[in-house]
Design a protein that fits this description.
heterodimer, A: 178 residues, mainly alpha, 8 helices, globular, B: 555 residues, alpha/beta, FAD/NAD(P)-binding domain, 2 domains, seven-stranded mixed β-sheet, six-stranded antiparallel β-sheet, 12 helices, 23% helix
Chain lengths: 178, 555
């Protein structure tokens, strides 16, 4: 019963919009169109343009676009900006921003350039090391990335959670369509 | 000037207030319903279909606003980013407790009250419950038995619509059910294995829930969208907004006044009758008085007690505010199953499983009296399991769409004994935003509840073991905070003796004949079943009695 909290908050929400039946390619286009703003890396209320770009690229490395849309398509960095500004405590926010600076420092030590300018291979290597070390700020980034992606319209559609089935089947084949 | 004189006044528009409104108006009384909170318009206020990406915090809630305005309400399981508007503001509505004995008072002020955000589980009480106090010498005897309330359970169930499965168990009488919701693969398996191991002693059944599985009284069946506590535009679950208040309105005899905070009852000592109710308009803060021949308090157990205490009425027994009960929870267990990896759940069933009470039913437990039931269910985890999983990139992303193993959990809901020292009193200085004295609530579990809580985790693990689960984990949580189940009750109990109870067998106050209390305050014991169905049945029964008495000019 306790686990209902997250699951109900997230999985059980859906609109009645008729966006059904879009092909994956359309979904990519939809996602990019919706979130065009977030790929321009403008400064937000908390993140500078550089920090926003850092967050956006790191999120994309965590959840890359594959056969389905990735974190950028889902506008994850805008969600993270919102959470940092209006949800987290000042102390949590400061630790997160210090973490972004540490990320650049690690990249400069490794490849003599900031994270955003590193090769994808270097970016993945540095982020993997942070993930293995369970750095607090990185765990927060990853949590917000996963959460932001999976609660976005793009993510919910990619995961097959939206639109809602409007019925209940307690023993459906795993690959059954809604 | 709008009218100020009515046949009946009902205080509260929620679970029981809605029923009083429906019954009294249908029986011919011009009825005023006073609601402390705002009006509710389903088309505008229900938000169950708002998708996560349209919520500013995607369902995580406005953490800062919650911390400053709703630090208590936010602990309710039905509180979230969307439903927080259906819970009260803790700053405007303060109460106190002893520093070392917290009590969670979850409160709703709007038309519909908590019936908008309730858990919708509905279970009958049986004579195992109604006879328990007498049999065991606890508190006072219920003045009624199952046969007295059974027709009223029928009456309520027929109107609200309850889906469920008949099981023929004496301790959990069957009702008038719509088709049951389905058990999922794992739950069917557990039911079967429990039957093999425990026979009729421990039974797993689908929850009995006030969500429709078929069209019913003009309301549509459930469409399995999930977050019922945000409202239901198809009126598929029972609330007063969805069902009883529209029925009352249809009679042409209902007047509903929102933003009406009851300050006190008005009493005529010569006639020994309440003559009406004095309210404060929540918006203008102006006071007004309304008069009626009969008054029903349906404001929720603690609010109704508060109104009685603030009015200095119906308390010759000294029992008003005493005997607070809730249900103890957080004992239980979870486990995994290896099978059905090719199967999953589609849709959000607004319901789980129920295991009716089995302790102290046919045998006697050495450590405690009374018992508990289990709620819970089985499912497979989805992307949320990846929130803390290792890795990044393509392989990590693939985990988001992988389903975890089937897991099953049992969560106990245990009976609480009535004890006089569990008590709400008027606070000497603390007042709410309208200047009305607040409550000081002093309530704790007794050894009996704590023993029940411990036993829940043992037997839940036994059930999972019998079902062949792996990774069985008994709950390590301590007992819930009193009040935390939001089943508070008992503060104006029914009884057989005016010296030791507040209400007679008809929910009529012993002291003031035209004053009735029909919400959870009336409960003489708590049983372990979810109580709302009993509150509703008692309300309908009391309304019929009151109208009969009025007709005979005996009120």
């Amino acid at each position: 019963m306790e686990r209902r909290e997250l699951i109900q908050w997230l999985v059980a929400t859906a609109g009645l919009r008729a966006l059904d039946g879009l092909a994956p390619a359309d979904l990519f286009a939809l996602g990019r169109d919706i979130h065009r703003d977030t790929t321009s890396h403008a400064a937000g209320r908390t993140l500078t343009a550089h920090a926003e770009q850092t967050v956006a690229i790191a999120a994309e490395r965590i959840i890359p676009a594959t056969e389905t849309p990735g974190a950028t398509d889902a506008g994850v960095s805008a969600f993270i900006e919102k959470m940092l500004t209006d949800w987290h405590t000042p102390a949590e926010r400061e630790r997160f921003l210090a973490g972004l600076q540490d990320l650049d420092a690690r990249c400069r030590a490794r490849a003599s350039r900031d994270f955003v300018a590193c090769s994808e291979a270097d970016q993945v290597a540095v982020l993997t090391a942070l993930d293995d070390a369970h750095e607090e700020w990185f765990d927060r980034l990853k949590y917000l990335t996963v959460y932001g992606y999976c609660t976005s319209e793009v993510g919910q559609r990619a995961l097959g959670l939206f639109p809602l089935p409007w019925r209940y089947d307690g023993c459906a084949p795993v690959d059954a369509a809604h | 000037m709008p009218p100020t004189d009515f046949d009946a006044i009902v205080v509260g528009s929620g679970m029981t207030g809605g029923w009083a409104a429906k019954e009294l108006t249908e029986l011919g009384l011009r009825t005023l319903v006073l609601e402390a909170g705002r009006p509710i318009t389903p088309e505008q206020d229900y938000v169950e279909h708002k998708p996560s990406w349209e919520m500013p915090f995607r369902g995580l809630g406005d953490r800062r606003a919650t911390a400053s305005r709703q630090p208590i309400q936010s602990h309710s399981v039905s509180f979230d980013e969307m439903s927080h508007v259906f819970w009260t503001d803790d700053v405007d509505n303060p109460y106190s407790t002893p520093a070392d004995r917290p009590f969670s008072w979850f409160r709703a002020r709007q038309v519909g009250g908590k019936s908008i955000i309730w858990g919708r589980q509905v279970y009958r009480m049986s004579d195992l419950d109604f006879e328990a106090n007498l049999r065991e010498g606890i508190a006072v005897d219920w003045p009624i038995r199952y046969k007295d309330i059974a027709p009223w359970y029928d009456h309520v169930e027929r109107f609200i619509g309850v889906s469920g499965q008949k099981e023929g168990l004496a301790q959990l009488p069957d009702g008038e059910f719509l088709p049951p919701m389905a058990l999922n693969c794992a739950e069917q398996h557990v039911r079967q294995r429990m039957q093999e191991r425990f026979g009729r002693d421990r039974v797993l059944t689908i929850g009995r829930v006030a969500n429709l599985t078929a069209p019913h009284n003009g309301r549509a069946p459930c469409h399995y969208c999930g977050p019922c506590h945000r409202g239901c535009i198809t009126r598929s679950y029972f609330s007063s907004v969805n069902a009883t208040l529209p029925a009352a309105r249809a009679t042409g005899r209902l007047t509903l006044r929102p933003f009406s905070i009851v300050k006190r009852l008005v009493y005529d000592s010569k006639k020994n009758r309440v003559t009406g109710v004095r309210i404060i308009d929540a918006q203008t803060k102006q006071e007004r008085e309304y008069t009626a021949r009969v008054v029903f308090l349906c404001a929720s157990a603690l609010e109704s007690a508060r109104i009685l205490l603030n009015s200095g009425l119906a308390n010759s027994s000294g029992q008003v505010g005493r005997n607070i009960m809730d249900h103890i929870k957080w004992g239980g267990a979870g486990g995994q199953f290896d099978g059905w990896t090719d199967r999953r759940v589609i849709g959000e069933r607004p319901n789980g499983i129920y295991v009716p009470r089995f302790r102290n039913v046919s045998s006697r437990h050495p450590d405690f009296i009374r018992g508990y039931g289990f709620q819970g269910g089985a499912d497979r985890s989805g992307w949320e399991a990846a929130l803390h999983a290792p890795g990044i990139g393509r392989a990590f992303k693939a985990r988001l769409s992988q389903l975890g193993p089937w897991t099953m959990s049992f969560a106990g809901f245990g009976e609480m004994l009535p004890r006089e020292e569990n008590r709400a009193t008027l606070h000497p200085t603390l007042v709410d935003a309208w200047g009305i004295p607040s409550l000081h609530i002093d309530c704790r579990w007794s050894d009996n509840e704590l023993a029940i809580h411990r036993d829940m985790s043992v037997t839940a693990a036994e059930l999972l073991e019998a079902a062949g689960a792996t990774h069985i984990e008994p709950s390590t949580r301590g007992p819930s905070t009193p009040g935390g189940t939001n089943h508070e009750m008992g503060t104006a109990r029914m009884g057989r003796d005016p010296k030791t109870s507040v209400l007679n067998s008809w929910n009529q106050t012993w002291d003031v004949p035209n004053l009735f209390v029909t919400d959870g305050a009336a409960m003489t014991s708590s049983s372990c079943q979810n109580p709302s169905l009993t509150y509703m049945a008692l309300t309908a029964r009391a309304c019929r009695y009151a109208v009969d008495q009025l007709k005979r000019r005996e009120l």
